[in-house]
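Why run this: before we spend reagent on co-expression, it is cheaper to look at a predicted model of the complex and decide which construct boundaries make sense. The entries below are exactly what would go into the expression plan.
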Amino acid sequence: MDQNLTLQLLALKEEFEDYKEYTSKNIDSFFLCTMALIIFLMQCGFAFLEAGAVRSKNTTNIIFKNVLDSLFALVCYWTCGWGLAYGPGEGFLEHLFGQSEFFLVGTNDYTKFFFQYVFAATAATIVAGAVAERCEIVAYIVYCCSISAVVYPILTHWGWHESGWMAQGFWISDQEKTEYLDFAGSGVVHLCGGTISFIAAYIMGPRIGRFPDDSGEVSGEIKGHSVPFASLGGFILMFGFLAFNGGSTGSITAPGIGKIVSRAMVNTMLSGTMAAFTCLIVHYKMKGKLTLLFTINACLAGMVSAFAVHAGGGSWGLFAACLVSHKGICYAVSNAITGHGWQWLPVAQLFWQIVCAFAIITWSFATMVPVFLLLKKYGKLRVPAEIEIKGLDIYKHGEAAYPLHAYGHGWDEFEPIRTTKKISVLNPEISLEQLASAYDAMSHKKSVYHNPSGFEHPELHGVAKYKKQVPKPTQSGKENGAFNA
Amino acid sequence: MDQNLTLQLLALKEEFEDYKEYTSKNIDSFFLCTMALIIFLMQCGFAFLEAGAVRSKNTTNIIFKNVLDSLFALVCYWTCGWGLAYGPGEGFLEHLFGQSEFFLVGTNDYTKFFFQYVFAATAATIVAGAVAERCEIVAYIVYCCSISAVVYPILTHWGWHESGWMAQGFWISDQEKTEYLDFAGSGVVHLCGGTISFIAAYIMGPRIGRFPDDSGEVSGEIKGHSVPFASLGGFILMFGFLAFNGGSTGSITAPGIGKIVSRAMVNTMLSGTMAAFTCLIVHYKMKGKLTLLFTINACLAGMVSAFAVHAGGGSWGLFAACLVSHKGICYAVSNAITGHGWQWLPVAQLFWQIVCAFAIITWSFATMVPVFLLLKKYGKLRVPAEIEIKGLDIYKHGEAAYPLHAYGHGWDEFEPIRTTKKISVLNPEISLEQLASAYDAMSHKKSVYHNPSGFEHPELHGVAKYKKQVPKPTQSGKENGAFNA
Amino acid sequence: MDQNLTLQLLALKEEFEDYKEYTSKNIDSFFLCTMALIIFLMQCGFAFLEAGAVRSKNTTNIIFKNVLDSLFALVCYWTCGWGLAYGPGEGFLEHLFGQSEFFLVGTNDYTKFFFQYVFAATAATIVAGAVAERCEIVAYIVYCCSISAVVYPILTHWGWHESGWMAQGFWISDQEKTEYLDFAGSGVVHLCGGTISFIAAYIMGPRIGRFPDDSGEVSGEIKGHSVPFASLGGFILMFGFLAFNGGSTGSITAPGIGKIVSRAMVNTMLSGTMAAFTCLIVHYKMKGKLTLLFTINACLAGMVSAFAVHAGGGSWGLFAACLVSHKGICYAVSNAITGHGWQWLPVAQLFWQIVCAFAIITWSFATMVPVFLLLKKYGKLRVPAEIEIKGLDIYKHGEAAYPLHAYGHGWDEFEPIRTTKKISVLNPEISLEQLASAYDAMSHKKSVYHNPSGFEHPELHGVAKYKKQVPKPTQSGKENGAFNA
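The model came back. Tokens follow.
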């Protein structure tokens, strides 16, 4: 009887262990896939934040780059990146990069792959904003692949893989050991992305018209074409960063981890809010305007990853961890003051964070500067000035973002409309067609507006040559009739 | 041996209890965080529903308000609101408001905080639509903070905290007790938000041009500038309301609760659908048109929270619960008729719902009317008429939603394009640049279109003064050439 | 003592079983509801993919159809579809369709209903893109209801219900049995939707201007009015398809299923990527342009459900399963070659897939061709040519997507703006108002731009009659002044 009971108990125990194991795997998969889905949507967020911030003539181009991004990052991370980051290795090199599981051969952990892939895609996509409106597509593909296949995966191996040298840290006594703190990818995602953005923008140079030239004209800020699109992107990115930071635990099944996830989300919102308010107030004091776009960008930066300030946001995240966290410098100092004795660990920790940040920046420079310089040397980095001035959409893609002849409608000749006073004939709206034909009449040319057939056909544009300068329509007047004359 | 077995059994039992406890906490955190993320995206939904419904000159402004909303609500709910709503208290006052955990000091339940915060942000954001295109930003900040710091949290304490007076209800017999039924925030979120919207809109007055004036002109409905944006907002809000209502259970781990969550989603969709069809058919019968925007708004109202009809949607939700639910009046009546005896509970329940709805409305009036009246007294409620007419975007934010000079491209001088018939020179598109220079030639002025440098610089606009009336371009003709003449 | 222990053990066992059961139900509900929410958002994705691809004059119309879609599909699936698909039945007919649980009477599984409903809505919405810009709303409602009430539910009964004839397959030996493989709805959702799209587009005919007419003019591709909107839709659909395919397991609680879900997502991304690259390269080789929209559509097709190629994408999914899966033909062949003996199962399997695909296509034709032909006979299939040319938005809905008078702002008379050189008076922007009044002056008519009151009032439009042809503004010149003359 006893025997029987013991067996039953053992069986139950085993069943329970079994249940715990497969259930926690399932729930973690569910958690990571859900968060990864939302993080994946950040590609859409970046696309629209950037699309709203460029001029309409480059809108298709910037969205194209963001779409390609997700796709190239997948191929590169699948073929090469995952293996370098998490493939088991051996020997000394194991501290530097992974050495197997390329093409996912031998991998079981698809969940982690999917989750890490969306992080890699984020790291690659960050740069697109810094080179918008002037980067050659070839350059874009090259740097995007470099990042997602090599640069970023090796950084994650250093920082996030248990055998990476940054993750291993060093022993300061028998019991105490520093470790690399990198919650939510402050370092390997945002500092890396930010550094590469800086390199790219520096080597490429600013957009034409961005800074004053010799003519003494005040240079304008180049306004984006759509505040709503930029805001849409901003909202989606907030949504995404909450998942990004919440999901960084990588698991939802360890005891007490639910609280950590939700606290991460609350802290993300709080620091985004503080950054947004700071920016808003400073800008208002200086310029007298309440700027929406700066506020959104500041908020995203505060959420540890602003578009414009990735490097800044990223490095602050790295150091904040060892300044204000529970094991941080601030606590050490306050402990020392209150007589609890001085601790060396927080100092060693801060030192280690500095070393790691330095390593991340150095690595990003060492790998990406040659890439961009080579691209520049072969003239593949930046589009010719004429194309930049006229816009990339039509020349590169054959797709205007808002083809003019797709607008307008024909309901401009209604029957008389009754008002309360009398009946009168009204043109309810100026149609673009009418404007177009009026323009045609003026200019004695036939605009293609009325002949969409010939317009924007990629095969016809292939033969188009662009002129050196943007033609300025004559403004002399007199000769040719009233309009274009 | 027995001893040993007993110990093992006890250990297993304990482990199991332990597992159950931390797992259910984790899964609930996961559930609430996921739902909260989706509900957070509703801020984006509201922003776009409203952005599409205003004119382009106020688009940046309305999005700005919706972004600020999420941020101010967080700060206010963090500093004050959460404590008033869920901070433990004592004595009689405990029935009225919470008394601790301000700044989240001493709180453990970050998950609940995050979830409740997104609800508070929703309650605050509802009002923005009612005061669009004319509300001063100061007024907006003041009322938004009032709602999320005080008005809404105290309501949730009444209705959702176990010691709140509404939640406690009263005993009608030894066994039977009324309780406040408020599934998915019909009362405390939507009735409150709707009431405050009404107060705000009433005190502020309608937009200029919204209703007929003395001149006898038919007043127009003021159309929004983008149906697609409004629809985008509507779709996101549907997505959000499904999560809002599904997530209202606050947990996913109690036995059988999964079914309740999914049934809530199904019912949400069904009632949204019924409301949308009703509105569609009535409008079609009356006006002969199938209106998209009314249909979307009706659908959202049916999902218990339409933008335009928050008060209506919210109060119906409150009463529907005690009319048609399983313990509701309808069942009581049918039971009485079929001879199962009359029950007083449903009647008492209905009475209690009416009392609570009355309390919510009274509380909203008592707190918010003084706020709005004070704002009005000090001239901080509504922007001056000139700014309202000319639009808030440029004056307040220095950011036009669609800066004209960010549009257009330069590809208007292609080489001849081949058609099947002949080769002819075509202007593939009327560029805005050409239109602009044509306009310049006409008007003998230089539009800044060609000189973006000076345009929309916030620091330059600071000195701009607006005129009293919108200048009407002269239409007399003759003198000045053909165009502007 | 023993007795006691045994009882305790039994109690624990029972509690554990109980816990397992209700927890797995809850977690599955959570999983399915979350995925269903994201899949529901695909309605928004389709709406915007299609809205971006039509001309602005039909934008409200296409969004309206997509909203209606979700609503009609719910009503139809609730009243009828669910019962036909999953209602228990008896006798031979059970293999053909379900026979109970109409109006959800007697159903307990709301989670499955909600999940299946979003699939049904997807099947119905696929067709909208194929008939855009010309379909009568009545026709749309009729076919949408037919699909979600009858055609699609019966297919799911065949393929996904355990007693459906396709799901049952046939025995090829005592141990081996074919089964219908339909991961993520390749067949019942995408092949069905694609077939009906083909039928609808064929019977309805192409849009006016889509293909060359007798006049010998090159016919244009009809460009959509907004690349960003189409891309937004594409991004949302990618997000949705990941959930669609990941969620197709229908559960997250069986041992090892988490891995299957994440692998499904990884594979979805990979095949989308491959399709996108193939399309991109082919198109670039042929036309010399890197097209964004084709790339997005190809990516979605690769994710087993492109808009334009539903039928193609769907049927490839059906066959791929038995070609390259672990039990597929390729493995059988390689086994035979390597001397492991020939297996008949993969061949039988492929045969069965072909039979099923044939059945799906036949069923779609048999049910939907009569529907569309009847609609055509009674003139309810396609709008009159005049309305098609002038656009559906204003005539059908009274809502222009971008009402012109909602644009523009009044800040065109700033005080002088300082430049570095001198102070000059500038018109910062050409306002639409000024363009409008210039146009008015030219044409000697008063455009309603200045009198929004009379514009787009649905009740006034009811009396409007459209003319036979789009009026061409005269271009002869001379007589009437310079502009309209």
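Confidence is low (pLDDT under 50) at residues 305-315, 412-433, 443-485 of chain B. The beta strands of chain B are 417-418, 423-424. Bring this page to Monday's planning discussion.
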